[in-house]
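Work Package 3 (structural annotation) set out to generate three-dimensional models for the target panel prioritized at the project kickoff. During this period the team completed the workflow that converts sequence records into discrete structure tokens, so that structures can be stored uniformly alongside our sequence database. As a representative example, we reproduce one entry of 135 residues exactly as it appears in the project archive.
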Amino acid sequence: PDIVDTAIKAGSFNTLVTAVKEAGLVETLKGDGPFTVFAPTDEAFAKLPAGTVENLLKPENKDQLVAILTYHVVPGKVMAADVVKLDSAATVNGADLVIRVEDGTVFVNDARVTATDIAASNGVIHVVDTVILPN
């Protein structure tokens, strides 16, 4: 299955999947890729200030939602073994993510990577515990 269907099947990315649909990015993330997605869990979205997700899902905030979601996507298939060798990665959004390893834990900006190398037909998903917001 592709990245979108893999995320749906996992069951812990309902908010992300809803956001991807609202942003009109489903077809993109079902495309050939490959893509590397740093996927925030439902718990990660729940850590945002109250009302943030609801506001982002409004049609008038679609551009902002797209900017945030594309900041979680890196072109190419970057497996965990390769991520740890990087100190930054260019996103589809155009801005760079900062990557660092502390005591064996990988962080992308301030988000902790909690699971890695979830394979999809058009890329790979790494799970993060925080929504990564572009500056």
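The chain is about 35% helix and 30% strand.
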